[in-house]
Task: structure prediction
Amino acid sequence: MSSGRGAVVSAGGDGGRGSDPKRYLWMLGLIAPGCALLPSQLVYRTGSAVLWWIAPIIVLVIVPILDWFVGEDGTNPHDSDYQQLSGDRYYRWCTYLFLPIQLLGLGIACHLWAHGQLSVLDKVGLAATLGVVSGIGINAAHELGHRVERSERWLAKIALAQSGYGHFFIEHNRGHHARVATPEDPASARLGESLYRFVPRSVGGGFASAIRLERDRLTRTGRSWWSAHNHLFQAWALSAALFGGLILAFGPAVLPWLLLQASIGVWLLETVNYIEHYGLLRERRADGRWARCSPRDSWNSDRLVTNILLFHLQRHSDHHANPGRRYQTLRSCGEAPQLPAGYATMILLALIPALWRRVMDHRVLAHYDGDLARANTGHLARL
Result:
């Protein structure tokens, strides 16, 4: 299968550990939460206050450069290795370990915000670092939240507590995956829509959708909205417990910084949402209903460095076509539309609407052979 620049090689094997050439690279995904542990030591040892901003520097500067030089992954797991890879608990621990590192870093940051001798600019930099970690933590929650195991779904809610974005657990799984690449999905960006118009629409629409979906689920199961089984209440309670505990431990002075880092995390998540389905529209079946989601309905990127950092989130086409696959089994699909760079680079482009449209709009049209009517422009009337 093609992966944009060249052929994707199946990483076959005998079903053993050697079947995944990236096996031990996945632990590098823990660099992201590790960023929350680094700033104080780096600043202390180097004397450079710019290192309070270490996570934005890594994600928005270093990773795009590495993506460019390292290039594409070029390997896919072999079908015969699917069961072995899916059942290998090593891969689960790569995501499980994200959470304690993430939360430990948040505790250290609260101590620094409350008691450290930091300037306001340094505190903002630390909040930016924690926000990036929080946003990538939502990706870890995304991986865990798709699993059927009850324990992993609870871990997903815990991972979302830092960003206060617990409703994502409901809306992403039961809303976004059902409506993706249609005008009805608030998390699918429309052709010509800027990031700055998309984010408020996605945040508000996703929140309202999560409430409707959870209310409907509780009604079907004969439970009250005020039930302890309400997944929204469970997620919100975790955020309240986390923030409340940190305020009790370190004082109310940490609250503005907690809110700032959470907002940055949400913005980062929604920027990635913007990238993943920009302008793409699923086909209609003869009966007028949307066709099943295919790899053609999500933007794909196979840049190796960002793939490792985000647990294969960039193989988004296969994820939506086969949402039950764990990250280590996702494949790069030749029929999927290809981004010109990794997510880290595309985030930078998305911040400048004119540049984004210059890079992406013609790719959307090329994907649909120049037929604008096949793209997602948000015009429900014509559908």
In short: Residues 120-145 form the longest helix (26 residues). The longest strand covers residues 9-11.
